[in-house]
Amino acid sequence: MMFERFTKDARAVVEGAVLQAERAGAETVEAEHMLLALLDREGSRGSFALASLGLAGRRDSVERDLAEARRRGGLSRADADALSGLGIDLSEIVSRVEEAHGEGALDSGKGGGGGRRARRRPFAQGAKGVLTQSLRIALARRERHIGDEHLLMALTVRPGVLSEVLADHGVTHEAVTRVLYGGGGGVAEAG
Length: 191
Prior knowledge:
By secondary structure, the chain is mainly alpha-helical. 59% of the residues lie in helices and 0% in strands. Helix 1 packs across helix 2, helix 1 crosses helix 8 and helix 4 packs antiparallel against helix 9. The radius of gyration is 17 Å and the shape is globular.
């Protein structure tokens, strides 16, 4: 199994993501939970990259941006712009839905029932994709083990809200690669 290839720091991020999901009362572990768990880490390669790029201590800002994306039903700004190009005003739709059903009605991050459960939460497709992408990145770099830095890099290359939020905070694949490896470096195909 792939988890055997994870370093102690990468395992801690995955375990931290499960805790993040539990605290949020989410039904599944999402890629967002991995990002939040990465932001909680200290003394690892991933946390070093985040600190070097100025994201350490800015968790509140990241959480606000993620909450705003959830409020839009999980759509990125690029998605909202594409809809706008078709004459669809996403902010107007969100306002009408919230007017009818309450604030945060489109928030896809809320699980039903809340509270703690004894069972483990399954990993959502996006979170599984991050794990798979981190393996691809490690293999492309000819590294034997998957570290939390590979999880961070995977979050930066997968299209969508998380990579958009990270980029808004100056954390791109290129920037992380530069901080960790000192050069450019190719991107393993997002999948």
